[in-house]
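tool_call: predict_structure(chain=1)
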Amino acid sequence: MDRRKAEAAIEAILFATGDAVEITKLAAAILQDTETTRKLLLHMKDQYNAQERGIELTELDGSWQLCTKKEYYEYLIRITKQPRRIVLTDVVMETLSIIAYKQPVTKLEIEKIRGVKSDHAVNRLVEYNLIKEMGRLDAPGRPILFGTTEEFLRHFGLHSLEDLPEIDTVQMEDFKAEAEEEIEEKVDV
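tool_result:
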């Protein structure tokens, strides 16, 4: 199969599925090895970026998907008339950060770190499809384990979880000290 036909086949697959497809599955579909398929995908990505197009090819943790470029969302909203704006409050962002860095994690572990109930924030994140159930912990009550989704990667422009920023350990110690001071102040009152 020549390059153009292979790229057209990949484009057709990604368009028709609408979801991210693992590179191994794409390679099998076009009867190529994964390295050749990766080169084709990177070439396609460059082509989409070089041309003024409304879609882009995005890699998400070893899978690839055709997505609308963010600068064209407003046009989609005009058609759908139901804008789905994701509003991430500080509380929701804090909860999402804990899940992203500690996953898989239970709601109890999130609440232990935050020091408050997190039902609303977790429910919002599930509703926004930024987190999902990853299974259950083998412990009494079999609590749900949460982790991030492909939508999380897309939303924050990450290729994989390895792209998350490093946590500054000095800053973490400062945060921990501040939190302990706040707890002591509440106890003294």
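agent: The chain has a mean pLDDT of 86. Proceeding to next step.
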